[in-house]
């Protein structure tokens, strides 16, 4: 049985229970956060590093958690920000090269031995990588993570209307990409 968020937060406030609280936090949210990150950056090792950074940042600031949102929403926001910052740093590093981050990640889909998807899943990942960052993020959150627009709004700090528009445009671009792609 998964630990209750209130229990985790209570233990986090106790000096002699902090390690137990961190272990429970990681046990409860590790897998969902990992896959959220992995869908954005494709590479297992990078996703693993970013997940660790997410938990370190969350743990450092858990005393500041106000409870305005759920613990998961707060962690998801941290993971999203860590991932977007990582992608932006990668893009800055590629400014002097001929490749772009989407092409680089698309190549990773093909060559990553840990990517277990079939050909259709690989094509979908390549379609997603062709989307602008925001649309890709919103599509992943809605389609794969089955989040409501309200949950996404809490995490991303964007209006529900803007998120619906981003999702609509993402779906249209994916449909067009698949329709026009030569297989």
Features:
9 helices, 183 residues, Arc Repressor Mutant, subunit A, Rna Polymerase Sigma Factor, Chain: A
Task: Describe it.
With 183 residues, the chain is mostly helical. It has nine helices and no strands. Helix 3 packs across helix 4 and helix 5 packs antiparallel against helix 6. It has two domains: 116 residues, Rna Polymerase Sigma Factor, Chain: A, CATH 1.10.1740; 66 residues, Arc Repressor Mutant, subunit A (Orthogonal Bundle). Helix content is 76%, strand content 0%. It starts with a helix and ends with a helix. InterPro entries: RNA_pol_sigma-70-like, RNA_pol_sigma-70_dom, RNA_pol_sigma70_ECF_CS, RNA_pol_sigma70_r2, RNA_pol_sigma70_r4_t2, RNA_pol_sigma_r2, RNA_pol_sigma_r3/r4-like, WH-like_DNA-bd_sf. This is RNA polymerase sigma factor. It comes from Marinilabilia salmonicolor.
Overall geometry comes to elongated
Order of helices and strands: HHHHHHHHH
CATH architecture of the largest domain: Orthogonal Bundle
Q: Unreliable stretches, pLDDT < 50, 5 or more residues?
A: none
Oligomer: single chain
Helix content: over 70%
Tally of strands:
0
User: How many helix segments?
Assistant: 9
CATH topology of the largest domain: Rna Polymerase Sigma Factor, Chain: A
Mean pLDDT: 85
**CATH level 4 superfamily of the largest domain:** RNA polymerase sigma factor, region 2, helix turn helix motif
Question: Sheet with the most strands?
Answer: none
Number of domains: 2
Beta-strand level of the residues, as a percent range? under 5%
Report, as a whole number of angstroms, the end-to-end distance. 45 Å
CATH class of the largest domain: Mainly Alpha
Alpha-beta content class: mainly alpha
| CA radius of gyration | 18 Å
